[in-house]
Amino acid sequence: MIQARDIGGDVHFHNPALVSALRPAQLPGELRGFVNRTDEVRSLDSLLDDASTPVQSGGALRIALVVGTAGVGKTTLAVRWAHRIKSHFPDGQLYVNLHGYDPGPQVATTEVLGRFLRALDVPLDRIPTGEESRAELFRSVTADRHVLIVLDNAAGAGDVRPLLPGSANCLVAITSRTRMSGLVIREGAHRVSVETLSQAESVRLLRTTIDGHRSGDDDTDLAELALLCARLPLALRIVAERAAARPHMPLRDLITELRDESGIWDALSVSGEDSADEADAVRTVFAWSYRALTPPVARMFRLLGLHPGSDFSVEAAAALAAITPVSARRYLDVLTGAHLLEECGHDRYQFHDLLRAYAIDQARQVESEGEQREALRRVLGWYLYSAAEAARAGSAAYTMQLTLEPMDDSVGVMEFDGVKAAIAWYETERDNLSSSVRIAHDHGMHRIAWQIPATLTMLIADREPADTWLPAQRQALSSARASGDRYGEAITLDNLGIAYRHLFRLEEADACFGAALAVFQELGDTFGQARAANGLGVVRMFAHRFEDAESSFEQALEQAIELDDPVYVGAFTRNLGWVLLESGVPEGLERAEASLNRSVAILAETNEPLEQAEALTLLAAVHRQTGRHPSAQETAERALSIAGTADGKLFEGLALLELGRILLASERETEALGHLQQAAALFPRVGRLDLQAAAWDATGETYLSLGRAEEAAAFHRQAIAAFRSKGDRWSEALALVRLATALTRLGTLDEARERRSEALRLLEAFPGPAARARRSEIEAQVVAGDS
Predict the structure, then answer these.
(1) 361-371 pLDDT tens trace
(2) Are 154 and 100 in contact, with CB atoms under 8 Å apart?
(3) Residue 261: what pLDDT?
(4) Where are the alpha helices (H) located in 564-688, listed in sequence order?
(5) Cβ distance 669 to 677 under 8 Å?
(6) DSSP letter, residue 684
(7) How much is the average pLDDT of 634-658?
(8) Are 443 and 484 in contact, with CB atoms under 8 Å apart?
(9) Where are the beta strands (DSSP E) in 394-483?
(10) Cα separation of 216 and 225, whole Å?
(11) 612 close to 645: Cβ distance less than 8 angstroms
(12) Strand, coil or helix: what is 685?
C-alpha cells in the first residue's frame, strides 16, 4: 500500500500508526543471590527526601553515582536499588547500558536521547537532530515528570551530562568504573563506592548460589575460594555455578584447579584503578570456566564475541554457529547457567563487557581468519534476510527490487505473522542492524552493507528521526561505490534523499535524488527512475520550485505509465494536481481539478484507499479555492470517511485540516475550530509536527475571524516556532503575515510591521508567480499600515 509521508503528494506505503501510551518501565530484572550491600543501599537512600513518601519537587537534581572496579557488582546494586525506589517515580523508569567499557563502540549520546524521547511519547517529528537540541528537549519533557533514570556503564562525565534532566522531580543513577570527580564537584553527584565483598559476604554469596546443589562445604574452603576470586561478585558467581554443577567433587579439588589455572588472556580491559590481583583473579576465573565447557558450547561462546552488538537473540546465535535455534538455545542456557552470559529478555542474551572481550580474544586465538569471516557472514546475512522479511511484512512494497547477497543454506530467517511482529523485531534489533552495516562495510562485505538499509527504507522513514540512520546510510553508499555496484549506489542515494528531505536539508536531498536518477537512467531502470523523479518532485515542492516539481512529476508519471502500474499512475497524477494547486499559475486550479479528478478515478480502482483519500482532500482544496464550498465540504468528508475506514490517521488529519479551512471560508468558525482541534491532536500521533503547525496556523486564522485576536496571535506564534524548527521558511513566512494581521487588530503596529518585513525577507528566496503574488500582498499591507 502507498503512504503520503509528506503533505500533498509523496508516494509511500501505509501502515496504521503503532503508538504506545504506556509509561516507560525499562529496568532490567534483578539478579538472584544479592547479598548485603547494606551500607551502600543506606547511602543511596539518603538521596530520597523520605523513603515512605513520594519525591517532592524543588531543589537540585539528585544524582547517585555508583563507582567501583570491573565485576564488583555496580550494576546489580544500582538496578536492585532502582527497583526498590521505583514507586516514588510514577512517570516511569528509563534505562540504558552505555557500553562505556565494551570492546565495541559506545552508544552515541544522541541515539540515547532519541530513545528516551520516544519512550516518553515524543512524536518523531518533534525529535530534533543534534545532541544539544535533543538534550534541551529531554530536559523540557522531564521538567514536570517524576522519572527514574539509570545510566549504566558510563565511561566519563561527558557521556552522561547531556542525559541529565533539569528537574529535581527526577533521579539519576549512574554506574561507572571511574570516580567522575567533575560530576561530583559540578553537578553535586552523590558518589557511592562499591568495594569488593568482605570475606563473610563472599562466603554468603557462594553458599546462596550452591544451596540445594551441594552440602558439607567448609567455610574455610569457601573463604579460600572467595580469595582466589578476589571477592568480586562476577567471578564468585561463575565459580559458584561451576561448583553447583559438580555436587560430588570435593571443593578442595576445585580450589586446586583454580590455583593451577594459568592466565591465558593478557588483554583484559580494566580501569587503571583496578589492582593487579583483581585483574589476575578475573582472568583466571574466565579461563578456568571457559575450559570446562564442552567443545560445542565453547565454540558458541567465542563466536558470540563476533556478534555485531552487545545483545542478541537465539536465532542470531544460531546463525553465527550454523546450528539450529533449538541447539543454540540449549548452549545459551548452559552459558547463562555458568554466568558467562546474562539473559536480558525473552530469548535474548548479553555479555558482561569483560566477558565479551574475553570471547573476542578466544575467537581470535582459536578460530582461523576464514572461520571468523564465515561466522560473521552468516550472522550479517541473517540480519539482511530477516530485515527483508520485516520490511515485506511491515512496509508493503515500496522498496526497490533486490537480489540479496547469497546466504549459507544452514541459516534460518525470521518470519513475521503481521505488521506488529515485524515492527517489534525491527525496533528490538535496530542497533544491531545499524552495527551490521558498519561491520559489513569494515570487513569488505559491501553488498550486505548497502542492502541492509535498502531493505529497510520505509521502516526507517516511517519510524525514525531522519538522522538516526544517516551514518549507516553513508557507509552503505561507500560500500556500494567501493564494490562498483551502480544499482546499489542508486538505491542508497535515493534513501539518503528521503532522509535529507525529512531533515528539510533540501539541497542535499535534491543532489541525492538527482544523482540516483542519473544512475537509474544509466542502468535503464524505469522503476528506479520513476521513484527518484518523484522524490525530486517532492523536494522541489518543499522548495516551492513549482516548474521544476511539475517537470519531475511529469517524468515520474510517464515512467509509471510505461510500467503500466495503476497505483503509481494514480499517485503521480495526483502529485501533478498538487503542484498545479500550489503553483499560482494562470488556469492552474482548472488544470489541477482535471488532474485530481483523473487521479481519484484511477485510485478508486486500486486497493489503495489512503492514496484516494489524499487525492480527494486535494480536490476539496481546489473546490474551496474556487468558492464551491458545499462541494468542497462533501469531497473532504468523503476523504475523511475513506481514511477513517482504512485506519489512516495521517489522512484523517489531512481531511480534518481541509474541512476546518472549508468551514472557515464558509464563515462557520465554531465548527471549523472543532475540526482543526481534532487534526492538531491526530498529527502528533503519526509524528507530523509540520502538519500540527499548519493546524495551529489555521486555528489562529479562525480565532481572528471570531474577533479573538489575542488567541489568534498565540496560535500563530506557536505555528511559527514549529515551522522555524523544521526549516520550512515558506510556511513560516505565511504564518508571520497572519500573525502581523492579528497584531494589527491588537494595535501592536510596530511588531506587526517587523513581522511583515521578516516575511518579505524570507519570501525573497522563492521564485515564481506564487511567491511574487504573496510578496505583492504583503507590500500592500505594509503600505496600508504606514498610511
Answers:
(1) 899 999 999 99
(2) yes
(3) 61
(4) 566-583, 588-604, 609-625, 629-645, 649-665, 669-682
(5) no
(6) G
(7) 91
(8) no
(9) none
(10) 15
(11) no
(12) helix
Separation of alpha carbons 182 and 156, rounded Å: 9
Separation of alpha carbons 263 and 285, rounded Å: 9
The CB density around residue 722, as the number of other CB atoms within 10 Å, is: 23
Q: How many residues does the chain have?
A: 787
Pairing of strands 342-345, 348-350: antiparallel
- Among residues of the chain, what percentage have pLDDT more than 90? 50
Residues 233-242: tens digit of each pLDDT: 888 888 888 8
Question: Is the pLDDT at 714 greater than 50, yes or no?
Answer: yes
User: How many angstroms separate the CA atoms of 354 and 282, rounded?
Assistant: 9
Instruction: Name the grid cell of 205.
Output: 554469596
Measure CA 583 to chain center. Answer: 36
Compute the distance between CA of residue 674 and CA of residue 497 in angstroms, rounded to an integer: 37
φ, ψ of residue 715 in degrees (nearest 5): -70, -40
DSSP state of 747: T
pLDDT the model gives residue 266: 34
Distances from the Cα of 371 to the Cα of 75, 226, 315, 366, 378, angstroms = 34, 38, 19, 10, 11
Alpha-helical segments (H) within 322-368: 325-337, 353-366
Q: What are phi and psi of 171, to 5 degrees?
A: -135, 140
pLDDT higher than threshold 70 for residue 507: yes
CB atoms within 10 A of CB 262: 8
pLDDT tens string 11-34: 443 333 333 345 899 998 876 656
Q: Kindly report the pTM of this predicted structure.
A: 0.74
Torsion of Cα atoms, 14 then 15 then 16 then 21, to 10°: -130
